[in-house]
## 1
Amino acid sequence: MDTQLTQSETDTKSAAPRLRNYVGGQWVTPQTENYLDVTNPATGETIAQVPLSSKEDTDAAVAAAQAAFPAWRATPPLERARLLFAVKARMEERFEDFAQAVTREHGKTLEDARGSVRRAIENVEVACGIPSLLMGYGLEDGAAKGIDEDVVRQPLGVFAAVCPFNFPLMVPFWFWPYAVACGNTYIIKPSEQVPTSMQLVFEELDACGFPPGVINVVNGSKEAVDALLDNPQVRGVSFVGSTPTARYLYARAGEQGKRVQAQGGAKNVIVVMPDAALDETVSNVINSAFGSAGQRCLAGSVVVTVGAGHERVRDAIVAAAGSLTVGNGADEGVELGPVISHSAKERILGYIERGEAEGAALLLDGREAATEQDANGAFVGATIFDEVQTDMTLFTDEIFGPVLSMLHVDTLDDAITLIENQRYGNAASIFTQDGAAAREFRYRAPTGNIGINVGVAAPMAYFPFSGAKESFFGTLHGQGRDAIDFFTERKVVITRWF
Ligand code: NAD
């Protein structure tokens, strides 16, 4: 907890349910004695207590997943797909419950939460095509006359996902439907800050008919993660979270010879050219910078205007951001919910203070909007700085809150150079009506995801969720064909008959 508990919060806490793990087809109470409070960041209410599973608890889940692997691997892909069709149907039925659970534990608006549940389901829909996706390829006489050569895709065993707080329900779905469809077994480790929506998901998965051990959830934090990284039966790990943890996990799991895909932090730039369509640009920037309270890895947190028109764009963005309604994301009409916790709020306020001290011009101060909200909620209003320099922390650091930095350059080349010099490479967007400028941007900007007149460049499930530089460690990304490659081994068969 970030704050001292009041008497009423203590009372709420005692009523908060203790979450369990889902292992081998059963809900199990882990052996650990360590539990953490899970709070609704809009109200400060304790909504659950999450177990911090021990190494033994985690190893038990790996053993269950390993035991389930041989029979699951031998289940025809079409039958595996049928279970995913059942997942899709049950998720549609619980759609609204899922969205509300996400808003309650994370704080984002219901509209944002619904969007994330939709994206989760889309990954199930794509994985339903596994009989086609899993096909190999071959060539008669491929090795020599009378010697054929074929490639088949085979699953490897137990895989695991270590997930961040900012998309509690969606991120596990970037991975597990593909892994399981390919014939692997799976363990999800949700963020300990937002573990409740995954409990609802597993209520539904439990009813879909997966054999015990095929899919499991282990709640916890570092000890559980390290147990997954060190267990030799875990063949690969998908990670989404901050860059320092991504780097750590990539090294530790890689040392053990595991497959790793580790998506890290971000600092995404939106370039606005002088010919950009103003209204559309502004509404996209507002959604990108302040949607989900700026806690998206695809959030545009820096706007770079090029050439003429900086003041026009800046003033329109400040006016639109200043009129956002801050409040509980569960309430109708709210556009900007709380950040995830009081400690996150303190960190973000620290960045605002530092931005002022470093000499940036504070045009919109979210600290004031924040004080008008419920004292127990972790609110920060939309904040905008102008005249930001590339050596300021406002430009270099991922703030992960509703803070937008603006700066101005003379040419598109200057804007691209600025992106090239960043340590992160998750996403970058350009707003323009000029095809040549857009082409130059997509060709040169060194980020994994590019938006052209799109403020949040989020790839659909059938495309890889890319990322570059310190935003991604690995080779194969989540989603799409990359996912099938990550979760299978390509075995080559060379055949000759005498
Ligand atoms: P985080 O790194 O603090 O935690 C992520 C996960 O790692 C959690 O499950 C946590 O329990 C575990 N973890 C944390 N520290 C650990 C340690 N020392 N050892 C082992 N495990 C550890 O990240 P977060 O704050 O939950 O998520 C926000 C971050 O995620 C932001 O940086 C954001 O940009 C990033 N993110 C990136 C993407 C992407 O696609 N690149 C998507 C979503 C979020």
## 2
Amino acid sequence: MADKEIKSIDPATLEMIEKAAQDGARVVFERAETMRACPIGDAGNCCSLCAMGPCRVMAPRGKEETVEERRKRVGVCGATPETIAARMFVRKLAAGTASHGDHGRVMAKFFMAVAKGEAPGYRIKDEQKLLQLALDLGVNIGDRSNEAIAVDIGQLLLNEFGKQEGELLFLKRAPLKRQELWRKLGVAPRGIDIEVSEAMHRTHMGTDQEYQHLLNSGVKVALADGWGGSMIATEIQDVIFGTPAPVLSQINLGVLKEDEVNIIIHGHEPQLAEMMAVVSQDAEMIAYAKSKGANGINLAGMCCTANEMLMRHGVPIAGNFLQQELAIVTGAVEAMVVDVQCIMQGLVDTARCYHTKVITTDFRAKIQGATHIEFNEHNAVESAKTIIKTAVDNFVNRGKNVRIPVHKTDMIAGFSHETINYLMGGLFRASYRPLNDNIINGRIRGVAGVVGCNNPRTPHDQGNQLMVMELIKNDVLVLQTGCMAMASAKAGLMVPEAAQYAGEGLRSVCEAVGIPPVLHMGACIDNSRLLIAATAMVKDGGLGDDISDLPVAGAAPEWMSEKALAIGHYFVGSGVFTVFGTTWPTIGSQEVTDYLFKDFEGIYGGMWAFEPDPIKAAHLMIDHIDKKRKALGIDKARERVLYDMAMRRELDSV
Ligand code: SF4
Ligand code: MSK
């Protein structure tokens, strides 16, 4: 049962919230109590786009509105509540797409630098993925070197950002029927930057003022994220740093070490963190740490940089989004090294109560009061050494007020699309066939992507745990990314033994393949892997000819960021039913909400839903999965599986 009164279901988090209060350190949980959410903005009823406003257009509470009152409920420019809710929503999609897109652009430039030999210390690690990418993009392989091929791929992908005409290259990876639908609806993105720019223009005061038109344009910008910026980032990161494969590690604040220099790497872009993972184990660095009285250097991750490091190096995770300040509260963190996205400014204020140095490293992101040591990928080893030495030097300043929670949990990560392919089909017959077959025969009811952030407006990790447990209990295989993947890992759901919590059908498949019922697929950028996995299921046959035919659903029970909304909208635009929890940003306009929640299904085959109760939300997903199974004519197979189970129980009781 959901308990709304608690702050978190994670004991390490609760312990550190208490310590923060004792130490007089402010953290997000406390700020969320004093700063209540504004109900007008929360509902999408506030427009601040021009200096004639800000305008508030909320409906009167507790009484029926007359037609005349409704007519007057507009902004100074005459903008209706529908226009206001829709354009604020589309602006968030544009911001989310811009964030993932800018990450993708930096990775494309970095990829070029690696290919040209201008980024010493990095090399192309996954040749197979490089060649697959070359085939997908029509880049000549011949007897050319990997580097020459990579330069051509890098240039093609870099062009995707500034492209003005045509359509994004990766759209061709989608099922044909989906591609045709996007073209017919005029939502096939041309380039990444142009769609963000157009969305900002459309939503400027006095431009696009028909909510349906706005919301459909939102699909175009969001698709430029999922099938554009995010997918480019994921592909490139796999080629340079290696495609993730299953790796065992641990998660939660208990991974910090009392006798070592603890460095947390936090943010999203993995270039620096990759080098930190290597350099921190360098004999010179370890000797330096020992010279300062520490027994070694312990690197741990936070948020999505953590997912990147975990998947490829097995670097342990200290926690998810809401735990970032709490890591500092342990008193045992020498440096919190951050790059971009999801970094709370409150880190600096929390760090004032301890010895932790907050170090910003990205040219786009500084924080007042933090130390800025800019990362230079052309001189990555030196950059990483400087940062690590700064942390080591700080070890002597660690005070006596240290308390590291004992809580840490084993987890397995690294289930990329390729890994699922191999695990299911075998190295020489890699395919999704066994997955599809198990869906068709009813052992697996369907597949759910449960992704997104934490949000202090809802108990930390609780929505995720209740939803995921309900899904696996009902034989739904769960794929996860971002901070929700970490929530499940902390709850012990990302080890094969967690199959005990799954329904009989899912459990039998997990035990046969040796996988957990909840698979870690990466960082939030890696939601593009879910699009590829869904497309692979379509292409393998037997489950319809479009993503919208599949018995799949998506969710973000604890979302908070604009990136999460962009992810949700590209899932919906790709044909996936997607339910968000916590809050919904257009709830102040019934028309806009109905359009997204109902009309979108007729247009895209996927639609949004909002349900703050995670168990009810799980059942919305299960109902949708069952609806799709029925449409595919495979609902009877599942009934047979259930009949078999009942018979088995009967036999057991004899
Ligand atoms: Fe108000 Fe219109 Fe300006 Fe928005 S654009 S702030 S609704 S006047
Ligand atoms: S870090 S976007 S809080 S998932 Fe990707 Fe977590 Fe959400 Fe940030």
